[in-house]
């Protein structure tokens, strides 16, 4: 209840692999909240991060800790008490810079708090020693300057006070010795933590070099894929141009088929007119002119068919399905031309007979 958040950000949390001490193991599947907390009662600082109901970071900041930036968006620090190395991946370089500045600020505050606590311990120890030293001198002064009766009356309380001060001094010395041992253990722990951190930093540097090589390979692969995409886009453009040509050819064929149907309609009308023999003689010249026009149209159609054949030969490997339709069209056209010739010969014979 005495802790208060003083800084909050969001980042991806990682921990060093305890087996290899080289690879990072993600502690969260997504970016989570990472906060600095200040404990008023203990005068200490902690970094805490919670993913759902799971606490993934609970690291108390000590003056010996160091936050290291290993890339533009990644930083790490070693926690000897948790026996691990924490890593944070941020979405921007500005967030990493702010977190590192706050870490340095909290680390300095923790150092000041530790120095104040040591000063208090040393001050209390000095007071105990001074009180222990002053008591014998005052006793000696009283014994020297006082009379025999005063000596007899003051000897008992002075000895009692001296014993109590000596006991306090012994307790303070015992606590100091215990604190010295504790500090020696913490110093050894910090040395081991620094050694592990140095090893982790060296491994991280090697990992960074490996990541750089992988990034270079990915960059080359990306360039190769971009070139491949450009080639495919060019091929798609060629295919689109071929499709446009096919569309134009289909429209041309539809126009020719429409002209052919019109010619078939004219031939049907001519057949109906040929059935009327009395009127046929009067319209024979007109029919001849129509036939000559039809021949000219047929000649034009033949020229168009020849040009169409040329176009079809140029693109027959792309338009094989059009070959069958054009062949049937030519067969029908040749049949119609033969019918026209036969009809003309019939008319000529009919005119001669008449």
TrEMBL record:
The keyword Isomerase does not apply. Residues 114-163 are annotated as: Disordered. It is found in: Cell membrane; Cell projection, Stereocilium; Cytoplasm; Postsynaptic density. It holds the Pfam family WH1. Residues 123-146 have a biased composition (Polar residues). Residues 1-110 form the WH1 domain. Keywords: Cell membrane, Cell projection, Coiled coil, Cytoplasm, Hearing, Membrane, Synapse. GO terms for cellular component: apical part of cell; cytosol; glutamatergic synapse; plasma membrane; postsynaptic density; stereocilium tip. Gene3D superfamilies: 1.20.5.1700, Pleckstrin-homology domain (PH domain)/Phosphotyrosine-binding domain (PTB). GO terms for biological process: behavioral response to cocaine; calcium-mediated signaling; G protein-coupled glutamate receptor signaling pathway; negative regulation of calcineurin-NFAT signaling cascade; negative regulation of interleukin-2 production; regulation of G protein-coupled receptor signaling pathway; sensory perception of sound. Residues 173-318 form a coiled coil. GO terms for molecular function: actin binding; G protein-coupled glutamate receptor binding; synaptic receptor adaptor activity. PANTHER family: HOMER. Belongs to the Homer family. This is Homer protein homolog 2.
